[in-house]
Amino acid sequence: MVYFWQRMLLPVSLLLVAAIFLWIAFDALVAVLFLALFILVYLTFHLYQLLLLENWLTDPENRAIPTGRGLWEEVFAQITKMIHNNRKDREQRIAALQHLEQATSALPEGVVILSAADRIEWCNPVAEHHFALNNAHDVGQQITYLVRQPEFIEYLAQQNFTEPLFMRGMRPHGLTLSIKLIHYGDARKLLISRDITRFERIETMRQDFVANVSHELRTPLTVVSGFVETLHDMPSLENDMARRALHLMSEQTQRMERLVDDLLTLSKLEDAHNPLQDESIDMPALLRTMHQEGLSLSGEQHQIILEIETELSLLGSYDELHSAFGNLLSNAIRYTPKGGEIFLRWQEQNGQLVFSVRDSGIGISPDHIPRLTERFYRVDKSRSRETGGTGLGLAIVKHVANRHQAQLIITSIEGEGSTFSILFPAKRSLLVMEKT
User: Fold this and answer.
1) 246 burial class (0-12, 13-18, 19+ CB within 10 angstroms)?
2) Structure letter (DSSP) for residue 121
3) Are 305 and 241 spatial neighbours (Cβ–Cβ below 8 Å)?
């Protein structure tokens, strides 16, 4: 604006001086005609400059910007500078975007950017391979039109992305994918896919190996156990050392049989081709059965107290829950000193159904609690061997809980005891299901 007035000051001053001179030398009419002619020429000049600007604006990418005259020279110079800066910024953004695309394309995971309406905005080559997409043709398409697996459509519709989705047999390559969706920006989503086909095959091989070895061990163990019992009961066996050896052999054989049984149970729970067989479970009746089994296992050395606070039944697998509850109860008996108390409780709490086992045993250090459900993890190895545990009980409990969409909660204080709780979602209550 300052530049405008500086450029206009001299012409305007000269125009006024000339007009005054003509007025004095001739008359007012001549002065007015002179001003009118000057204004007409001035307007024509500016209209011409505007015409040049309009002509350039019709195709700014291919036409050179006018140089302009007078005030317009500065205007066109500013426009030229602004265009140069904008082009430089755009080139930098394009370079940054290309760099980001190259970096994303180099990732071993598939990446798909989805709009708020779940339309594809961009995907890297790995995602093209995973989902049979084409970045050149599928941009703007609804993702569910191209990835039509029912489990993926349901996963996307639920909007609950806390846990990944596992998709098996993805066409056309038969891949197994782990899929994670992440919200970002203005309701956009980042779909990240990982090929876990190789890891799943390795895991399947491991499970098959454990299951086959366990099956192969069961038969010879049964034979050995039978002969050990037969020899132990022979009336002619009078050697105390031989009897003690046979007793130890019997104990270790039984321990190996329990280990084989737990391995087979765990392998069955991990089998993806073994879906959960839901049935109506009378939980109060099951807990009464568990109570009697606990009394028998304890040999009346503990006070086992049954607390049934709700008569609600549960939808689930009777055998799996019986195994999980039995593991928690046997652990409580194993790690609670003689005369201690063990509470079995079935209750409804905050809309969830809760089974819990609370004991007055030795307790567990907080450092060990996060790892208790790992296979063969032992807090005290020597004590675990003495009590006959296999190290697989809590791993079985965790798998059973997961198959029932339940949560295993462990709380403990050293020297005071522990509480193991399984929290079942309200949707597994038969009363809730009858109402719906």
Assistant:
1) buried
2) E
3) no
The structural domains of the chain, ordered by start, are 2-100 (no CATH), 107-195 (3.30.450.20), 199-270 (1.10.287.130), 279-435 (3.30.565.10)
Pairing of strands 120-123, 110-114: antiparallel
347 vs 340: CA distance, rounded Å: 23
For residues 208 and 267, give the distance between their C-alpha atoms in angstroms, rounded to a whole number. 8
pLDDT in tens, 405-419: 999 999 998 888 899
For 424, residues 6+ apart whose C-beta sits below 8 A from its C-beta are: 314, 316, 352, 353, 354, 355, 404, 405, 406
Q: Record the tokens describing residue 78, joined without a space.
A: 């500013």
State pTM to two decimals.
0.55
Q: What is the pLDDT of residue 315?
A: 92
pLDDT, tens only, 11-33: 666 666 666 776 776 777 777 77
- Give Rg (Cα) of the chain: 41
Closest by CA to 317, choosing from 401, 386, 234, is 401
Residue 302, judged by CB atoms within 10 A of its CB (0-12, 13-18, 19+), counts as buried
Q: Which is nearest to 255 in space by CA: 375, 376, 377, 389? A: 389
Give the residues of the chain that fall short of pLDDT 50.
432-436
